[in-house]
């Protein structure tokens, strides 16, 4: 079932909880008052080499409907709070119909995907959509397994991210809409408390009706891992 637009093996690992388990074991950090942003699974629909965009650009193309969102924040060193200039945010999410662009012939290539780089104060800003819940593909082994286990296929609304910066450990993560009904019952077991976010109504911006503010916290390559 795997092909150029879908990784069924990754999907099976998600629904049986294998990828979340490996992530938890691999990326646990030493306890402290301030910790790096939590990691979670990559998912089966990542595409490398998304377009590089300018600060304040939108990753939304040809979708006038949906909850357009202004997302902004900073990328900082989790121990010192120092802003990280030139950090890369690689992000992607589904359209309101629950499909990633490579699943949907009606979406333009690399729609709802983009790469952004932080400014001198670690800041980033972009436009995206408030993500919607959607069912994972159920026509392959992953879907059959869910049916055998009498489990639903729904994932809560989320946005995928990979963060990269010289001298820092990369972060693969997802941010979840706190108000989505599936955040406590994710078919992929990926939700974590630190990754629940609020989409706040926004006034005065002709491009967006919602605002999402989130600061990502990165760990240096020298940061110790907990056994």
UniProtKB/TrEMBL annotation:
| InterPro entries, per database record | Intradiol_dOase_C (IPR000627), Intradiol_dOase_core (IPR015889), Intradiol_RC_Dioxygenase (IPR050770)
**Single GO MF annotation:** ferric iron binding
Q: Kindly give the Gene3D superfamilies that the UniProt entry links to this protein.
A: Aromatic compound dioxygenase (2.60.130.10)
- Which residues does the UniProt record annotate as the domain Intradiol ring-cleavage dioxygenases? 43-218
Q: Which UniProt keywords apply?
A: Dioxygenase, Oxidoreductase
Pfam hit, one: Dioxygenase_C
Tell me its family: Belongs to the intradiol ring-cleavage dioxygenase family.
The protein's name in its UniProt record: Intradiol ring-cleavage dioxygenases domain-containing protein
Q: Which organism is it from?
A: Ramalina farinacea
């Amino acid at each position: 079932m795997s092909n150029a637009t879908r990784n069924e093996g990754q999907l099976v690992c998600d629904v049986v909880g294998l990828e979340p388990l490996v992530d938890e074991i691999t990326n646990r950090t030493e306890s402290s008052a301030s910790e790096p942003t939590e990691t979670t699974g990559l998912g089966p629909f990542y595409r490398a080499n998304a377009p590089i965009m300018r600060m304040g650009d939108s990753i939304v193309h040809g979708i006038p409907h949906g909850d357009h969102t202004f997302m902004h924040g900073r990328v900082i060193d989790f121990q010192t709070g120092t802003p990280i200039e030139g950090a890369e945010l690689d992000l992607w999410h589904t359209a309101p119909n629950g499909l990633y662009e490579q699943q949907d012939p009606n979406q333009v290539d690399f729609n709802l995907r983009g790469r952004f780089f932080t400014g001198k104060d670690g800041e980033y800003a972009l436009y995206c959509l408030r993500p919607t819940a959607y069912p994972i593909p159920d026509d392959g082994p992953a879907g059959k397994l869910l049916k055998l286990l009498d489990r639903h296929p729904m994932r809560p609304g989320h946005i995928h991210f990979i963060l990269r910066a010289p001298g820092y450990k990369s972060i693969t993560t997802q941010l979840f809409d706190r108000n989505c009904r599936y955040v406590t019952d994710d078919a992929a077991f990926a939700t974590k408390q630190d990754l629940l976010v609020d989409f706040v109504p926004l006034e005065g911006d002709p491009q967006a009706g919602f605002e999402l503010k989130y600061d990502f916290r990165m760990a240096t390559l020298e940061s110790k891992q907990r056994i």
